[in-house]
Amino acid sequence: MSAEQQSLDGLEEEARRALAEVTTLPALADVRARFLGKKSALSGVLRGIGRLEGADRARVGEQANLVKERIEALVSARRDELGRGERERALSETRLDVTLPGLRAPRGGLHPITRIERDVVAFFTGLGFGVEEGPEVETQWHNFEALNMPPDHPARDMQATFFVDGGHVLRTHTSPVQIRTMSGRTPPFRFIAPGRVYRCDRSPRHSPMFHQVECFMVDENVSFADLKGILYAFQRHMMGADVELRFRSSYFPFTEPSAELDYRCLICRGAGCATCSQSGWIEAGGCGMIHPVVLEHCGIDPERWQGFAFGMTLDRAAMLRWGIPNIHLLFDGDVRVLEQI
Amino acid sequence: MRVPLRWLAEWIALPDEAELLARLTQGGLEVEEVLRVGPDLSGVRVGHVLTCDKHPQADRLSLCRVDLGEAEPASIVCGAPNVAAGQKVAVASPGARLPDGRKLQKAKIRGVTSHGMICSAAELGLAEQADGILVLDAAAPVGAPLDSVLAVGERVVDLTLTPNRGDCASLLGVAREVRAHFGGDIEIPPTEAPEQGPSAAADLRVEIADPAGCRRYVARLVRGVRIGPSPGWLQQRLEAAGMRPVDVVVDVTNLVMLEFGQPLHAFDAGTLRGGVVRVRRALPGEKLTTLDGETRTLEPDDLLIADAERAIALAGVMGGAETQVTERTRDVLLESAHFDATRVRRTARRLGLHSEASYRFERQIDAAGVRRACDRAARLLSELTDASVTPGVLEATGDEADAEPVIALDPERVNRLLGTALSRAEIAALLARVEVRVADALASPLRCRVPSWRNDLRHAEDLVEEVARIHGFDEIPATLPRQRLAPVVVARSRRVSEAARDALAAAGLFECMTLPFARPADLDRMGLTADDVRRRLVRLQNPLTEDEGALRTFLLPSLLDVIQANRARQVERIRIFEVGRTFHPRAEGELPDERLALAAAITQGGERLWDMRAPVFFELKGALEQVLEAVGVTAEFVPGGGEPFWHPTSSAHIDVAGRPVGTLGELHPEVAVRFEIDVPCALLSLDLDELAAAKAAAHRFEEPSRQPQVRRDLAVLLPRDAAAGRVLHAIRSTAGPHLVEAAVFDHYEGPGIPEGRVSVAFRLVFQRPDRTLTDAEVTRASERVVAMLADRFRGELRHGGGVAGG
Fold this sequence. Notes:
The complex is a heterodimer.
Chain A: H1 3-21, H2 25-36, H3 41-48, H4 54-93, H5 112-126, E1 130-131, E2 137-138, H6 140-143, E3 163-164, E4 168-170, H7 176-182, E5 189-198, E6 209-219, H8 224-239, E7 245-249, E8 255-264, E9 281-290, H9 292-297, E10 306-313, H10 314-322, H11 335-338
Helix pairs in contact in A: 1-4, 2-4, 5-10
Chain B: E1 2-4, H1 5-11, H2 17-26, E2 30-37, E3 44-55, E4 58-67, E5 74-78, E6 88-92, E7 107-109, E8 112-114, E9 117-118, E10 135-136, H3 146-149, E11 154-160, H4 171-182, E12 205-208, E13 214-223, H5 232-240, H6 248-260, E14 264-268, E15 276-281, E16 287-289, E17 295-297, E18 303-306, E19 311-314, E20 318-319, E21 332-339, H7 341-351, H8 356-362, H9 370-385, E22 388-389, E23 394-397, E24 406-409, H10 411-418, H11 424-432, E25 437-438, E26 446-449, H12 460-471, H13 492-506, E27 510-511, E28 517-518, H14 520-525, E29 538-539, E30 550-551, H15 556-568, E31 575-584, E32 593-603, H16 616-631, E33 635-639, E34 646-656, E35 659-667, H17 669-674, E36 681-687, H18 688-693, E37 710-719, H19 724-734, E38 739-748, E39 757-766, H20 775-793, E40 796-797, E41 804-805
């Protein structure tokens, strides 16, 4: 037995003992370096093989490699053991109080009016209606005259008006957008116009600012029956398939014929309750066929073209959807209200 | 218009009430509510006296057993002499309330418990006094509420009239509407006035000097009127209709106005001078003391009634004090006229004198009914006061309009507008129900004669509406229109504002909406200089409150108010934004410039477990970065917001492609104090129109590299005023083409850092798309960066200058 062979035999035993004493992974790495690293005895033996003679060379080489493999196996086994031990220790040491609150990204939200408006816009753009906005400060021509409300017309009493510098008004409805959109355009066309409107009135039920959407369409044969068809589809989109509608004759200077659209109260189903003021019906908006005078004001020949217009208030729809009892809650920025929407 | 239903029933037979109200509403006369006037007898029931015996302890009392339709008859003590077995009587049970407000209770009368009271007419509020109990008709159903069997009280329908239906501001008008819906005949009360004595024309004449202002003027002289209160039935009618009784003359004119919709005026004929009543324009500066005692200065546009010497009434608006009917009046001149709607409206509005009369004139009255109403009033005065109606009607006419215009109506147009398939005959029949006469249902177009009272029907479309209204809107089919497809174009400003809203909501902010009014005081509180352009306001001429006298030029004050209000409500965590227009005056006569603006705010406070504790500014900036990313633009944040309301060294302005689009910053502590805001907060102000005008950067896809990344962290000591954003920008342009990411991952000043310096740690990530980077390549790039930092920013590496790898 050569010296090399003896030292090789001892080496394995020595490594086994050293590994048994190792308790941490870094210490294991040290041991591995000591027995298998570049400066280890084993590496020395392997490096020295080249200097040996024929038969010795093969034998020592084979043995050294065998020992190397064995030590590698021992290290690997010890590493597994130690790793498992460390994982087990971590497992027993780590502990979360899972009942502590989750870490949430702050939640925000859109205003109820924005959400209702988007519902409305989505429905009408789906039918190919364009979206138009107009100025909130309007000329009296656009807000009144062009809509067949000349000065001294009693219908002006229906809309308490804010007047601003220069004889202009805060628009009292979104209908002037009809005028701005139709003027200079040739039918057929169809548009909606969502926006803010103002009335000089503050009471428990009225805010000086509120929101409307105007919807209008002009073509050669578009009729009141078409208006009804669109509104049925629209109200089903907004309120569900079982909504019941009623058209009631009314008066707007800019439509003829004119009607109010009511829907059966969803709270009491028509029996009468506080939400519908005991009437069983809730007003959904005003509508009608665009008055020929209005078309003429926009340079559209009323003999050839006709169309419908519909306007609704978004605020009331939002209040009903979320059960908000007071319109003023919509506009005072109370975070406790907004968080609930 | 308040319509007592029993009164209406005297004009026309009424259908079932619920059906009546539903049809009126759907036909355009909206029923606002149904009121009840008169004694409320809903708690009193019909009882049947089964037995009537003497009270065991009192001779003059009876003990009755009364069937009220319940399981057991009630035993009731009654003191009336006329009570007898077999009678039907009115019984108030314990708990019922009598018309005088008394609530009935069980009572022991002379040792016997009485379960209620048999009522007299007086106790029910039906008579001043009564000798005994009220005995009802033997057919009255036992147990029924008394008001169902006795004509007491009155149900009054309150109708909301649209401005076009002035013709319905009368019993006659509503009766016509009932007939249109249900058919039937209208019974008009008698109007012929029995004439006596010499003709009025001998003493008086009437003239119209302003023919455009008065189409017809009719007057009658009634002599020997005894002024006093009007009879009870007349007073009750007026009260039921919501008018206050005054004296017999005023009450008669009001009654006739309610009946026919024709406002009347009564002059004391004895006060008129010069034997003439003239309709004319007011003279410049002319004065008139009206009935309410006010002396009014008139304008030439005002339509006036005058005698030979002076103004005596504002036509259609209010009478004059000097000629009004008083207790001493003997002879009354009744005026009935058709005045121009616009003139009456202007005068009423200018003087703030809106009355039942002006309401009707403003909506135009029936020119054909002027004479009839005058006759009716004269007749009533003669009936009620023994006055005599002087023969002859004083009458003058101005510009006559076509009383019954003819409108050509193409039946095709009716069906084209409504989407119906009505025949000519059906259309003619529907129009006939509102007394629009079609001479020949075969003619084309239909020639439709409009009745004199429907001055709202002037265009063919108005008749189409009548067809739809009477036919019923519910009868029109519901179809969907056929139309050529066309692309929907949504303006970029709208898409940008919607994207911004979504981004901020996703970043944890709540959208709020506030009123657009500006308080001038807020401009001072914000610290704006005297020449700040935001002080140029669009002012309201009729604001609701002084604080709402103008339109806002920026949104921040509104948001600060919201923060303050929420703090006052003890809300700790306030994260809000608003999108709204701002208003900026332009040249005289032009509409203001309206810009779409966005403001957002985040306050410090309310942090929970493990929350990050970076300054709140960076939370808001992060939200803004999400907005910019959603809009597709990149911005540069330049230190210094340049606004008096920002913290001067904790604010920035925001440039997109070299154009300023807004500013953000922490609130200046002085401004915070002025707005009573007690927590640190950061705010943002953005011009969405500017942002929408900026071109969105083209987004290009890059294939992720398969090669390994090499990371270098550089901790650099920089002067305190070096802007990390600029340093980062410089790093990006120095580090060469293989830098794929550069970020600040730590920012520290304090112990261990020399005075006036700040430690900023940058993380640089290098990667090539084609091959693994060599160590030497990365080191060269890093050293280039370090040299640049030293050169341009006086930056020095910390920890002995090592370039850490990882």
